[in-house]
Amino acid sequence: MADQTVIPLIHVENLSKNYHEQNVLEDVSFDIESGDLVSIIGPSGCGKSTLLRCMNCLETLDEGVVSINGITISSELAASNFATFTKYAHKIRQSIGMVFQTFNLFPHKTILENVMLAPMVVKGEPAEICRKTGMELLDKVGLAHLYNRHPWSLSGGQKQRAAIARALAMNPTVMLYDEPTSSLDPEMVEEVLQVMRNLDKDGMTQVIVTHEMKFARDASDYIIYMESGKIVEISDEDEIFITPKDERTKRFLKRYM
Question: Is the whole-model pTM more than 0.90?
Answer without folding.
Answer: yes
